[in-house]
Structures are given as C-alpha cells and as structure tokens.
Protein 1
Amino acid sequence: MKLHDHTLDSTYPSLTDVPDELLARALNCLDAPSLSTAEWACRRFRRIVLENDLWREQCLRACPELGRFNTDILIEGLQLQAAVPELQKSRSHPSKEALRAAALYKLHCELTAPEFKHSLLANALSASSTDNPEESVENVLTPLHRFNPALGIRSGSYWSSKGSDDEHSSEWLALRLAHPLCLVSAIGVMPFLAFFQRGHPIYAPKAVRFVFSCGEELKPRPDAALDGDTTEEDEQTQLLREDCEAAGYASLRNNARFGAWETRAEAFPMEQNDSLQMFEFKQPRLCVGGLIKVELLGRTQRQEQDMAWYTCINHVKVLGKPLHNFVPAPALQQRQAAGGAPPLVLAAVREDPMLARGGLMALSEGGLLSQRLAIEAQGGDEADTDEEIEGGFNVLGPEFPNALIALNAIAPPPLHPPQQHAPPHDGT
Amino acid sequence: MRTVILRSSDGADHIVSSEAASLSRTVQSLLEELEAKEGEESPLIVPLPNVCDCTLRKVLQYCIQHTEPGTNLTGRIHVSETRRRDLEVWDRNYMLVSTDELYHLVMAAHYLNVPGLLELCCEGIANLIRGKSPQHVRQHFGLVNNFEKAEEEDIRRTNLWALVDEKELAKK
C-alpha cells in the first residue's frame, strides 16, 4: 500500500500561508485525537494550540457543565511536572503552557471516558433525622436486605426518618462519592416497602431534589432522646477525616469551601412504589468535593401505629464517572473572584485519591461491595476472613458494628482497607 | 430591491442584490458609508482590492444561495427543516474545491467577513487534517518537523500519560 501520495504535495503548500487566527479556528473544529496529532506536526501548530488554549475548548465541549462556574478551568501546571512520572524524566523544561495543555488533554480523556456501571457512592455522612440507630442512613448505600441471625428473620436495610405531623415537611441525606471530582449523569432512589407492616406501606417522599457540591451546613435536627453532643469525634476518626480532607474530599466540617460550585437539579416527582426510580440529568453534573445532598420533599405515607408521616429509603444509587488524577485544588490555591463564582482550580495529582484507597470497588457502598465479592469468592467461609482482618477496622473489630458505622459516617475507609471481613451489619 | 456592484481586484464587476452583498459584513459597512456620502439614488460601486475575480465569483455563489427566499439573513434559525437540509448538501458540494481554491476562499471570507462561509472554510481545512498522522499532516501542508528532540519527546510522554489510564480503566 502506498502511504503518501506525493503528487498531492504540490497542491497544498499555499495553505500554510493562512494566518494563525484562521488556523486556530480550523484546528478548533477537530476532535481530540486529531488535535493531539496535529499539534505534533510542527512548532507553529503546537504554538497555535497552546496560545489559543484549544485543549480548554475541547474540555468545555466535552463537558459544558465546566463552563457554568464562570470557569476558566485553571490547572496548577507547576505541580504537574512532579505529578506526572513521565515528565520527571524530561531533560528539557516544558513550559507552563505545555504542562497546562497536557493536563487539559488528560482531563478531556477523563471527561470522555466510559461511565462506571457501579454506584459511585462511598459514604453516607448524615441525615436530617434517624428514627433509631438500626435504621441508619448508612443502609441506603446497599440495595440488599439484611438477614438478622439473632432473630432468624429478614429485616430491611433502609434508612427511616423520625415521624412528623406535617405531610409537607422534608428530610435530607448527605452522601459522599468515592472520588472528590465526579461527573454525575443519573441518580436512582428506591423508597422502602415495609414488608413487615400490615398492607405493605411504601414510605416514599413526594419528590426528590439533588444538590451537588453542597456547601450549606448539614446538621441533623436536634434530638431530645439523645443526651450530649453526638458530633464529637475521637482521635482516630479525626485523623481519618483530615486525611480525606487533604485528599480533596468534602466532609461535613469543611464543605462550606465547596459551596461556590454548588448546583441544584430541578425537583423530580417520585412515585409511591419500591422500584429503583432513576432520574437522569440532561447534562452530567460536576460534583466538587463529592458531597451530594438528597432532599426528600414531602411525604406520602403515615404509619398506622402512631399516625405520623415517615420517609424511608431503601437505596440510593449514583451513576457517572470519576475524573481520575484530578482533585479540587487546596483552599489556598483557589483564587478569589471579585464578582460571581470563583473559577474552579483543579490540581492534577500523581496518586489518584480513589485508586489510592483501593479503587471504586473497595469504596462504593461503604466498601461493602468488595467485601461481599471477596466473601462470595471464598464461598462465604467467614472463618477464614476473620483472621485476615488488618488495618483500621481491626481495632474496632466486627463485633462493634455501630462504632464502625460511626467511623464510616465521618470518613471513607483508611488508605489500605482490609481485603476481606464480615459485613459489619451482620450479626447484631 | 437595490443592486450593488462589487469590483474585484482585477477590475471585473459583479452585480448582486444588496441583500446578498450584505452577508459580507465588510461590504455591508462600506455600503452604509457610501449611502451616507452619496445619497440613496446614486449607483453603489464597492471596490474590493483584496479579492480576485474568480474567488469573488465563488464567494458570491455562496451569498446568493444563502439569501434565497426562505433563508433568514441573520442566520438559519427560522429556516424550514427541508430548506436547511438542502443548504447543508449545497454547502458540502460547494466545498469540493482544490486546496489552492480553499486557501483563496478562506482568505476572502476572512477579509470580507462572511461568518457562515468562514466557518465552512475552517471546517474544510480541519477535514484536511482530521485522522492523519503528524507525518501525513506535514506532508500535506508542506511543513518541516522543526521540534527539538527533547521537545518532541515531551509531547509524546504527556500524550501517553493522558491516554494510558484510560486504556487501563477500559480493561476493568
């Protein structure tokens, strides 16, 4: 096969006389793979790509959502050389612009990567109210029902609000994703069907609304039944929380700094059935910090015994993709804007915070997914798994499931989560 | 409808409707100046010293086609669906030009400031680059690889960095 048609050469040279401005417009018509080869053709093409920030245009085209935050996508290029192992070998000194272009190309690859099939949810941080500790918000991470061996019955794995006299009152759940920078395309909410109650009532809300990169203060409603301050944390949970905050995740204590990029989806009406009701967004939503507030508006079901209105949720599933190797830059490097939303500064990091914690499988559903798979792989032989418990969980042990939940509720699992151990919601 | 005369660099005159001529913002502003100076009645002759006769003819083909009844002047917003599709096909056939012609056309569209045509030409240039290897692009544009070795190596490395993870993730 003939690779090059030399007869064509003589007909093309005049196109090189096109001024930079027009060539930039032409190059901007290209798709990402073609642009990446075109800029490799010669210095002039490369310079035009860098000067006109064409990789930023590519990113904005791949994700118009990024343009919403008055964004300039700013990428801390200087740190990038340290972040990219390949670039450390470089003998020349790549310019700031070249580093920025490299980071934006990488970001574009992440933005156009295929979506994950599994839920991106890692932690349930808090809820507006919780009826009793067994009905913790942690339960919405997993779609499973749980088996209670002490009673020998199946009991629901769900979160329940406290009862209310007001049909129109609302509840919220604070949930955190497995990566501090995610594009969310759809969220599924499954109301709970109380199969143990007469008539199998379904405690669905009337509507649901989602707040991404939520910056407001999220505190559960004060509870007269609990004494003392429940928000206090011990030393270990504090360390875990600080570790997560350093990696770019939002926690309930520092989420205010992500409020500048807060976006709300419109309210979706919900049906009173116990299927997983999926709500898709026309444009994927960027979640900075990973904190999502799920607002459950209104109630549809009273409980027969006390005639109070309740909301109960069986499962919440978040679909989308994490932007690997990118995190919101630390607060110090975020720039102050005179008016409007400050531009979003992304930092390219060498070690992806999600992969460093064992990847999505180890984090999603609060780490339960990987544990379940590990147990399934071993044929459910739990005698073996007990011996191999290591790391942070081992201190608490599986016999203190509530302590474990409290730990999870504040921070994602430690950097090196145990590979296998019994699901913590078993055996109480 | 008023007509205007556009005079190319080699002195050839083209008579077109003012509507078609006004697709070029450069001509439009020149016309407004002329009208203000010489009054509504006098014949309007616009000299275009930067555009040769054969390119001007090609540009005017575009302007006339895009100002036919049923086409909106300001854009294609109110155009019917079939008319829009017809225009797209026409545009595609219109762009079947040699690269030499394309060069003159893009320069003319830039000088005359015809936004739609300029967009079309840029897309045309992009089509010459799309899907080609760097060597192939160089050959077609008559470029020389003037990167330093280290520089080229950096581009290769960063491109690898951007792509590697994606491939690894696709495997999972």
Protein 2
Amino acid sequence: MVDTAVFRLEGVTKRYGDLVALNNATLEVGANEYLSFLGPSGSGKTTLLRVIAGFEAPESGRVHFEGRDITNVPAHERGIGFVFQNFALFPHLTVIQNVGFGLTHGKSGLSAAEVERRAVEMIELVGLSGMEGRGVDQISGGQRQRVALARTLAMKPKLVLLDEPLGALDANLRSRMRNELRAIRERLGVTFLHVTGSETEALAMGDRVVVLDRGTIIQTGTPGEVYDRPASPDVAHFLNRFNLFDGQLAKGSFTGAFGTAPAPRATRADRDVYAVRYDRVKVLPVSAKPEGPALKATFIASEYLGSSIMNFFDAGHGHPIEMEHHLSLGAPDIYEPRQDYLLTWNPEQAIVFGREAV
Amino acid sequence: MESRIIKPALGVYVALFVLFLYGPFVVLTIISFQQGPDGGPQFPIIEWSTYWYRQIFGLTPPSRIAPLPFGEALIRSLVLALMTMVVSTVLGVMSAQAFRRNFKGSAFVFYLIVLGMMVPGVLTGLGTSLLANNIIGIERHWYTTAFATHVAYTFPFAFLVMLAILNRFDSSVEEAAWSLGVDPWTTFRKVTFPLIFPGVLSAMLFAFTLSLDEFPRTLFASGRDQTLPLAIYGTFSVEIHPNIFAFGVLTTLFSFALLSVYGILMAMSVRRAKKMAMQEDIA
C-alpha cells in the first residue's frame, strides 16, 4: 500500500473557530482504491473532502498527492475531481457544456472539436447519449447525478472525491448508481474517496471503510473488519447493525440487563458496552430457560425488508431491541404484539467493549 | 364583518396612493398640451396643441420664449449617468464579492460604504466643492467632482443589491468549476457572473436612474457646466412655460423605455434563475 500510495494525509487539523472539524487526520490511499468515509453528520467527513479538494485550508498537517505536497496548491491546480451532494451543475449551460466545461475553460489545450469528442464520450459512458443539448433543468435527478460525474471524469482525474453523491437519489437509483460507480472505476482506474452517511453504502462500496467521529478517524479497515470487529462502541453504533447494552465488564464477564455473560475477548474502550448483532438475536417463549444471556422484552412490531424481517422488542431501556430474521433461513416466526418474549444469543458472537480489557 | 370595513378602507388607501403617485404626472401631461406660445402652465387648457413639443425640438417659429437650453445638459447628464452606472456597478459587484468572506473590520467597511447613501446630499456636495476648491485646488466639473459624488451616492445601492444576490448564491458551483481545473477569474466570468446577472442589471438600473436626476450633490460639485436637473431648476427662476412639462413627459417616457428594456433582460435571466432554484430544490 505504501509504495503505491497516490494520496496521503499527515496530521491534518481543521478548526472553525472553537470547533475542531478535523483532528489530526492521517490517512494513506492506494492507487485505484475505493475508500468510503462513514460517520454521523458533523463528524468532519465533508470537511476532510473539502480540505483534500483545496476548498478549505487546514490549520496544520500536510496533504500529499502523487508524490507532491499540495497543501498550499489552489483547488484549480490540484487535478482532483469533486462530485457534490447537490450536484452543483452549471444551471445556465446544457448537458454537453457542463461536461465539457473543464476542458473548454481549463488548461487542457484541446481544440473545440476534441473537447466535444471527449464530452460526448463521457456522456456515453454515463449513459446519457441523446441528452447532450438539454438544459440541466430538463433532466431528472439521477441524470443530473450522471452529468456531475461525467463532468468530473472528463478531466481524467486520478482522484475523485464524492460528497454523499447518492444522498439525493431514491433507493432504486442509488443502487444503480452504485453499480455504475463500480464499473466506471474498473474501466478508468480512478481512486475514489466517497463520503456517505449510509452504513450500507459505506460497507457495500468501499475497499476500505474509514469511520469518523467528531473530527477524528476512529477506525480504518475493510468492510469485513469494520463490520465484524468494530473498534469502539461508537463504530458499532454508526454501523446500525448492533443492539448496544450498557453494563459492567469485570473479570472477563459482562453484567447487563440480560444478566451476566462471559466476555473473554473484550476490546478496550472508554466505557463498558455489550454489542449483539441484530441477526444474532434469538427469540424464545417467555417460559423458556435458556443457557446464557436472557432478556425479557415485549414485542412491538415488525418491518418487512424484502430479504429479511426486522422485529422490534421493548426491553424498557429507551431504544428498542432489534432482531433480524433472514428469510433465506426459513419462514419467520409470528410474534404477538404486547406479548412478552425472552431474547437470547450466543455470547461467543457478542462484541464486548470495556475499560478493563487490554 | 371585518373585511366589510377593512377591504374598502384598503381600496381607498390604494386609490389615494395611486393618485399621489401618478397625479402630478397626469397634470403635467395635460398642461404640456397647452396652446402655445401664449398659453401658460395653468388650467383651463385654452386649446389642445403639440406646440411645446415642437418647440423643444426647434420646430416652431421663433417667439419671445427662448427654447430650453437643455441640449448639452441632457448629454452631460446621460454621459455622467452612464459613467456612474459602470463604475458603481463594478465597485458594487467587487465589494459585495469581498463580503462573501468574513474579513477583519468587515462591519466597519460595510457602514463606511453605506454612509454614502445616508449622508445628506447637500453636505456631500458642499464638502466636495470645498475640498476641491480650497484644499486640493482643482476645478470642479461634472465629470470630476460631481462624478465622484455620484459614485459615492450610487455605489452603496449597487453594493446592497449585489450583497442580497450573492447572499443567496450557492458557491458550490464555483467550487465545482475550480475542481475542474478552471481558475477563479475564468470561473467568475463563466459561472458566477452569468448567474448573478439579474442582480447586476438591477444594480445598473439603480445607479443610472439615481445619477440621472441627482440634484443636491451636483448643485455644488458640478462647477460651471450644468447637468439636466440643474438646468431645469435654472429655468424655474425665470418664468415657467409648458415646454418644461413637455420635456418632463418626454424624460418620463424615456425612463419607461429604460424600465422596459430592464424588464425584458430580467425576464430572460429569470429563466436562468429558475433553473438554479430547481437545482437547489433537489439538494
């Protein structure tokens, strides 16, 4: 990774007044890598992209790109593409003028005919052939997204920053655009840094996932690593796949609302949290006497998600306990609303955080 | 019950409003068609005629009433208004652009600019003329000292218009242009300017019309050669003939023509603004 790194951040810090938007961020990105940035709003992920693009200057730290220190290079000389959440198309120009904008007015040195050829090629790449002459107000949201992408890719950047580019699209378009982004990346060999607020998107798209919280990078790893071994309770929380229980870790056991369960391989954290993935929870009749953890809870409702069913239980501590049943594993059990059940799981599969752990 | 009182009351109010707004112009128009050269600026109309209009353009036989000495004054005023319009609009766009970023002392600079439209005009004019005569020691002219006061007066209007426009401007389109390798100056010309053009048009209109009929500042600062408002005022001190009213009608028509051009250009660029608004809706 180090040898092929196209891009490196070294201890980048950015403040807005008293607010630390980015705290000592260090990161290395390899050629042709797809990096997802995940974090709640205000976690500094957009700031990170804006610093990389050159729209904001960091207070301290360096930004390297293709072996060059670009910390003080203005945005238009960086050669880094940026796709905005609101697309930021030029409303007074047509589709083809938008796509050819950088080639026409930048330092490409291409003739008008060459610009047009490249623009047409890019429009074809994103599947908008035939729309060249339309105004950007005459196309749909998904098409605008493609224009924004084609406009950026026309400059042949080695690095493209995507700032929640799929956020404004409906679910259907979103998954289609995800596939297209992947295909484009295969074809053009571009490094993508993709900021997203959706954990599904982050896990689905990234070769690696970078999790941010309050301006700090709190975990970097492959989607599998992040999903299976979240580095902290906060990461587990953002992934939106875990029931989190407060309690106490002592002598290799965790005591919480569900009783005491063995926790031999706890991860060190600043507080004691017990995490159980939604699809690891089992539901038993209230009369059952399971071994291990058991939590009495009232069934509230269920949500049909297509490939699985999400059941919500109230165990009397604020947020509901969620239990996911994958339909590929068979028909779901039917639970009675307002009935009590016993929730249990295999403690081996739980992820435990604690101050006591090493 | 309420609307039975309030609605007619509001109707009367609007009627009065329109009366006060256009009443003077209607009277002016009627008197401008007075018979000439013996008819004066009073009712009743002795006989309807276009004598005074013809007199303005020198199409009537010489009489005891001298033609209005407006030719040169009109040209001076138009040139001055154009110069003021260009300089104030450029300054207004540039300074409003500067205010998009917070800089040290921005509040102070803001009030400094706005002061130009707050200070009583006579004081500005008098001060400028004293400054020119006694301190710097230069001659006063409509295209030097008066021009300066006109810019100081209209620049704040252009500035405020542009400030309002740029306040709502989504800077991500500019950042998008930079990220495509386009330098900031080209970005301004090719992206920012076309999008803020409706505002620029309004700023231009403000500066032009305010300068065209500026009186108190020009009175002291313009020196020997008079601008149109000063020349008109000068004729009042002798004797008033309906030719002044005919001239007033013509300048008003000119203003309407100007407004129509503005309206057409505005309608053309509103289409653009709508596109931008639609794009913002998506975000």
